[in-house]
């Protein structure tokens, strides 16, 4: 799985950080940054939940 | 023969509609599927207009992220809440009722303090506020109104510290905010309350420009107003919005949540007996899903024709998103009318959805986690001091809750 984020669209709700703190963080303005764009299998469910929770649909997952 | 909108108006449910007697936690039955005969159907507003009501969880998420759906309340067809909202001066708009890119530009000016890490750093000070208020309650007479003694002061103290507003002014801003969120206020009353609040915030920004401190208003003053990015009036309106949103909402969640938990003692026991922060966080999400204090619908207008649920919403038609009903959608939450603190309720839409989703949600979460994990542990015998049936619920409020909550222990 590869994680992509569209930072200009981020609205800083912080939901991704709560759902998958090992994969997502926020910069000083609260905007999403990825800590790890190829997370281990054990984190995939959390990452999918983060993508589903994001209110602005900023997170896309390339599954392979 | 094709029915016109006017022909069917008489049969449309009004919006808002009353809740069922004896069911103060459940959305109005007239608006809920399957009573509404189609998944997407019209409702009748105070001014006779007939916007669409979106009640399904999946539809709400799809449309609130659709760029063909606008939050701009100055557009024709926007379904206004009341005459006072319709009549409000467009120059007094906040980013809540703007579309991108203007919305994004203004919102990003105030996202920084609400980052998760900064909210976590606030947790100890929120815990102290909560503990001090409980100490004061326990030392005082019984019964006590939990709204005045606890539910309102907690978020007011927290948001005042974050913004840099002196808490001593709480009578002034709580009184004026109450006028604004009461559906029955006249347009003149709302305008006067708004002006009083924005004037006050404007003066405060002047003080912050002269003597900046470590708070959000000082940051707005020195980094946005002084640089010419925002006028002082715009910053005052934004500060006012954050102040009002920061205390009315959480205060109602605390009081209404306490009523719901006292009515569901098995769930209250689960919350009281857990030491697990994850269980507390999950309980907060479920209470947000179940209580739906923002029961007045998210309002939008279609910019283009949109097909949804077998209907065509035409460009220029109004849309109301009933997040309270979507949070009780059985396709999203099995057994939706049951308060179940063990369920995974994270996909609730209590904070809305799309780019306008609540800015302060990380703060609300930490406040509610601290409150719900502390209040019932420290006062395990907490009980209503009035029959449940006699509690007065805010049926007429933009934000739902209880007016007073007499409790004893």
TrEMBL record, chain A:
4Fe-4S ferredoxin-type domain mapped to chain residues: 1-29
A molecular function (GO) term: iron ion binding
Keyword Electron transport among UniProt keywords: yes
Alphabetical UniProt keywords: 3Fe-4S, Electron transport, Iron, Iron-sulfur, Metal-binding, Transport
UniProt-listed Gene3D superfamilies: 3.30.70.20
Pfam family, one: Fer4_13
Cofactor: [3Fe-4S] cluster
Function (record text): Ferredoxins are iron-sulfur proteins that transfer electrons in a wide variety of metabolic reactions.
UniProt name for this protein: Ferredoxin
The species this protein was found in: Streptomyces diacarni
Automatic annotation (TrEMBL), chain B:
Molecular function in Gene Ontology: heme binding; iron ion binding; monooxygenase activity; oxidoreductase activity, acting on paired donors, with incorporation or reduction of molecular oxygen
SUPFAM superfamilies given in the database record: Cytochrome P450
InterPro entries in alphabetical order: Cyt_P450, Cyt_P450_B, Cyt_P450_CS, Cyt_P450_sf
Keywords, sorted A to Z: Heme, Iron, Metal-binding, Monooxygenase, Oxidoreductase
Region (Disordered) residue spans: 1-37, 70-93
Biased composition (Polar residues): 83-93
Family label: Belongs to the cytochrome P450 family.
PANTHER family: CYTOCHROME P450 YJIB-RELATED (PTHR46696:SF1), P450, PUTATIVE (EUROFUNG)-RELATED (PTHR46696)
Stated name of the protein: Cytochrome P450
């Amino acid at each position: 799985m590869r994680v992509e984020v569209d930072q200009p669209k981020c609205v800083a709700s912080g939901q991704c950080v709560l759902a998958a703190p090992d994969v997502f963080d926020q910069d000083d303005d609260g905007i999403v940054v990825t800590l790890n764009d190829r997370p281990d299998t054990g984190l995939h469910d959390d990452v999918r939940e983060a993508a589903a929770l994001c209110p602005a649909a900023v997170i896309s997952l390339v599954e392979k | 023969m094709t029915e016109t909108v006017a022909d069917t108006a008489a049969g449309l449910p009004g919006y808002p509609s009353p809740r069922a007697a004896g069911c103060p936690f459940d959305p109005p039955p007239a608006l809920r599927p399957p009573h509404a005969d189609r998944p997407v159907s019209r409702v009748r507003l105070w001014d006779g207009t007939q916007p669409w009501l979106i009640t399904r969880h999946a539809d709400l998420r799809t449309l609130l992220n659709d760029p063909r759906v606008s939050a701009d309340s100055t557009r024709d067809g926007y379904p206004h809440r009341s005459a006072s909202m319709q009549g409000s001066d467009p120059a007094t708009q906040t980013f809540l009722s703007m579309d991108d890119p203007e919305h994004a530009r203004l919102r990003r000016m105030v996202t920084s303090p609400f980052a998760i890490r900064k909210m976590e750093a606030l947790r100890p000070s929120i815990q102290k506020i909560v503990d001090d208020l409980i100490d004061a309650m326990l030392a005082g007479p019984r019964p006590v109104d939990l709204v005045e003694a606890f539910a309102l002061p907690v978020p007011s103290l927290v948001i005042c510290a974050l913004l840099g507003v002196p808490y001593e002014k709480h009578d002034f801003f709580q009184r004026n905010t109450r006028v604004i969120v009461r559906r029955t206020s006249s347009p003149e009353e709302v305008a006067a309350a708004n002006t009083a609040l924005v004037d006050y915030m404007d003066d405060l920004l002047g003080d912050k420009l002269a003597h900046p401190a470590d708070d959000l208003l000082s940051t707005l003053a020195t980094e946005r107003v002084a640089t010419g990015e925002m006028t002082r009036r715009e910053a005052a309106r934004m500060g006012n919005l954050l102040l009002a949103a920061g205390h009315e909402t959480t205060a109602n969640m605390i009081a209404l949540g306490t009523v719901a938990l006292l009515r569901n003692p098995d769930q209250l026991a689960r919350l009281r007996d857990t030491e697990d922060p994850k269980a507390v966080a999950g309980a907060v999400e479920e209470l947000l899903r179940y209580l739906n204090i923002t029961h007045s619908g998210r309002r939008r207008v279609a910019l283009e024709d949109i097909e949804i649920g077998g209907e065509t919403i035409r460009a220029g038609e109004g849309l109301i998103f009933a997040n309270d009903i979507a949070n009780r959608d059985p396709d999203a939450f099995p057994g939706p009318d049951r308060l179940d603190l063990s369920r995974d309720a994270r996909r609730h839409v209590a904070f809305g959805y799309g780019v306008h989703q609540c800015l302060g949600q990380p703060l609300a979460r930490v406040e509610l986690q601290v409150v719900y994990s502390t209040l019932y542990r420290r006062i395990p015998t907490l009980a209503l001091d009035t029959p449940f049936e006699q509690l007065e619920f805010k049926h007429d409020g933009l934000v739902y809750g209880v007016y007073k909550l007499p409790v004893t222990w």
